[in-house]
Design goal:
480 residues, alpha/beta, Rossmann fold, 2 domains, 6-stranded parallel beta sheet, 13% strand, elongated, UDP-glucose 6-dehydrogenase activity, EC 1.1.1.22, UDPglc_DH_euk, UDP-Glc/GDP-Man
Length: 480
């Protein structure tokens, strides 16, 4: 029986290994993590992450051929294939601070694998890592090998949160990078055989290590670039009276461009886009390519500009101050169908409003009060360290209350901001909300989920990103 072990029981490791266990019943899969509380959650009825379809998959396999354990060394020692899915946060100090990936956790994982291994192993990079990480890991393993052979593969994940299980069941492609040697080819074939249980062979792409690593960064950079492109156009739409939804639709019908990732919004978030672009920027700078680095930097600058523009629009529309005013925040996760708040635009928007002394009432169907308070009190990039190494949550931000109902959040509010495109926000009783808000009542739709005309008929002043502006908003221009 082939034994697979995955180091790291997070958003990537947990779902990926659950699906491998489901699709390969003759393979034993162990997911290990040094966080006992996280492992306990994976073994309970309340999984540590929310992902549609995940719970059903885990329950079918758990205890049969899928195991969650904090006995890291035992399972690594017994495994034939070790996936490494540990955190790769952005460095906050030292060389490359603010851009380079911090490989501390990767390096300690590699040293531990070398220490405990008693048989040959295939070690698979699953976390997003900078180009040439495999080479560094290979050196650590080789110099500590005690005669054991290690083959390093890169197998980047291309999951979208909210659809991760479907993405795993039916991937566009599975990418496997390895050394172009007979041993490397054999290792790639072993991993290919695992995926071939359910992925059509023509969708399993093999490449060299560096191409696989760079493909992951490039894919995320291209996707983020599309979002920043349409967000840049949304600012021009507001200035000219064009409608970004109509522009996006027209542009997306061109088969060379396509319709995906062309929805204007308050900005992109998630654990990968910003981190991977910063990483790409750093690699370009290290390789003497400043023009290429500056090109990718601009994608992040536009994303920051979009969030700032949204905050400025809120403040300027409400008589240039939100001091002491209650603002309802609907949605805190970075996108619908996930509880993930990493790099969510909601953090920057909330911090911008708090900076102007607003009182915030926040509702998200999947994000806990503890998580929201942590996010609003943490320094940038701290979120991407393992949870037990993150700073403990300091005292709660006083001007923030977290409620479990959209109507409670909006009661007596001067304005409401929609920051996540949860389906339920389309179907709220906005007449009831209007009746219970201070007047004039403002809606700032950062995801273009509501019918602006319908809300205007109720009496709201509505701002929708990239849409023609209310007369009121034209009279109170936002300065970005």
């Amino acid at each position: 029986m082939v034994k697979i072990c995955c180091l790291g029981a997070g958003y990537v490791g947990g779902p990926t290994m659950a699906v491998i266990a489901l699709k390969c019943p003759e393979v034993e899969v162990a997911v290990v993590d040094i966080s006992v509380s996280r492992i306990n959650a994976w073994n309970s009825d309340q999984l540590p992450i929310y992902e549609p379809g995940l719970e059903e998959v885990v329950k079918q396999c758990r205890g049969k051929n899928l195991f969650f354990s904090s006995d890291v060394e035992k399972h690594v020692m017994e495994a034939d294939i070790v996936f490494v899915s540990v955190n790769t946060p952005t460095k906050t100090q030292g060389l490359g601070a603010g851009k380079a990936a911090d490989l501390t956790y990767w390096e300690s994982a590699a040293r531990m694998i070398a220490d405990v291994s008693k048989s040959d192993k295939i070690v698979v990079e699953k976390s997003t890592v900078p180009v040439k990480t495999a080479e560094a890991i290979e050196k650590i393993l080789t110099h500590n090998s005690k005669g054991i052979n290690f083959q390093i593969l890169s197998n980047p994940e291309f999951l979208a949160e909210g659809t991760a299980i479907q993405d795993l069941f039916n991937p566009d492609r599975v990418l496997i990078g390895g050394r172009e040697t007979p041993e490397g080819a054999k290792a790639m074939q072993a991993l290919k055989d695992v995926y071939a249980h359910w992925v059509p062979v023509e969708r399993i792409i093999c490449s060299n290590l560096w191409s696989a690593e760079l493909s992951k960064l490039a894919a995320n950079a291209f996707l983020a670039q599309r979002i920043s492109s349409v967000n840049a156009i949304s600012a021009l739409c507001e200035a000219t009276g064009a409608d970004v939804t109509q522009v996006s639709h027209s542009v997306g019908t061109d088969s060379r461009i396509g319709p995906k990732f062309l929805n204007a919004s308050v900005g992109f978030g998630g654990s990968c886009f910003q981190k991977d672009i910063l990483n790409l920027v750093y690699i370009c700078e290290c390789n003497g390519l400043p023009e290429v680095a500056n090109y990718w930097k601009q994608v992040i600058k536009i994303n920051d500009y979009q969030k700032n523009r949204f905050v400025n629009r809120v403040v300027s529309s409400m008589f240039n101050t939100v001091s002491g005013k209650k603002i309802a925040i609907l949605g805190f996760a970075f996108k619908k169908d996930t509880g993930d708040t990493r790099e969510t635009p909601a953090i920057d928007v909330c911090e911008g409003l708090l900076g102007d002394k607003a009182r915030l009432s926040i509702y998200d169907p999947q994000v806990s009060e503890e998580q929201i308070q942590r996010d609003l009190s943490m320094k940038k990039f701290d979120w991407d360290h393992p949870i037990h190494l993150q700073p403990m949550s300091p005292t709660a931000v006083k001007q923030v209350s977290v409620v479990w109902d959209a109507y409670e959040a909006t009661k007596d509010a001067h304005g409401l901001c929609i920051l996540t495109e949860w389906d339920e926000f389309k179907n709220l009783d906005y007449e009831r909300i209007f009746d219970n808000m201070q007047k004039p009542a403002f809606v700032f739709d950062g995801r273009n989920v509501v019918d602006a005309e319908k809300l205007r008929k109720i009496g709201f002043i509505v701002y929708s990103i990239g849409k023609p502006l209310d007369a009121w908003l034209k009279d109170m221009p936002a300065v970005a």
